[in-house]
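Supplementary Methods. Inverse-folding protocol.

Structures were first reduced to a discrete structure-token string of length 198. This string, shown here, constituted the complete conditioning input.
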């Protein structure tokens, strides 16, 4: 049976983007026609840790319910370079606990992280969604591997725009940002396009 995860940011005693995490869990259970329902708020303790610190709540579940919950101090990864890898068969539409395929792609690059190209189109990095700046506006690809909760929040707030971005479009942008549920927009990892290794 497939296992799935939700990585949820808890900062200053607040569970962030809980509604969007719940929407994603609901979609996953619905797509797999699960008979069970998981209500995240019933399982997460927002009081974990100390104030002024960020914690990562990692919740593992399957179609029958919650399997495990852990809380750890969050430390942002250092990303100075991105390598391009191509894989036309990859499928990560749900947040699967098994990341072997993604880890293999990451291991095939000499960069700190990767930009995964599928059928000529930009998808995601190994742990984050990607945002591209053209000098005026920020854009994200309309073909992500995973529709991340932070990405969804940024689209709904009109902070970023969703559009088709192909590999050949990369030089048209000046900067790239990496965000996920643990990295909000204000703390996003940002690199110049020159930091992408061909």
């Amino acid at each position: 049976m497939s296992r799935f995860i939700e990585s949820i940011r808890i900062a200053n005693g607040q569970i962030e983007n809980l509604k969007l995490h719940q929407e994603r869990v609901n979609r996953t259970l619905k797509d797999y026609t699960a008979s069970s329902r998981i209500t995240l708020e019933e399982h997460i303790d927002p009081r974990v840790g100390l104030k002024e610190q960020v914690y990562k709540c990692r919740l593992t579940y399957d179609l029958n319910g919650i399997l495990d919950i852990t809380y750890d101090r969050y430390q942002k990864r250092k990303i100075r370079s991105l390598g391009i890898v191509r894989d036309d068969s990859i499928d990560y539409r749900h947040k699967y606990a098994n990341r072997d395929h993604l880890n293999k792609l990451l291991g095939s690059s000499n960069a700190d992280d990767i930009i995964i190209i599928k059928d000529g189109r930009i998808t995601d990095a190994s742990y984050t969604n990607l945002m591209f700046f053209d000098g005026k506006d920020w854009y994200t690809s309309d073909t992500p591997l995973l529709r991340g909760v932070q990405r969804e929040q940024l689209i709904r707030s009109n902070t970023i725009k969703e559009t088709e971005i192909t590999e050949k479009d990369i030089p048209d942008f000046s900067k790239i940002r990496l965000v996920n549920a643990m990295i909000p927009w204000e703390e996003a990892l940002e690199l110049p396009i020159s930091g992408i290794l061909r």
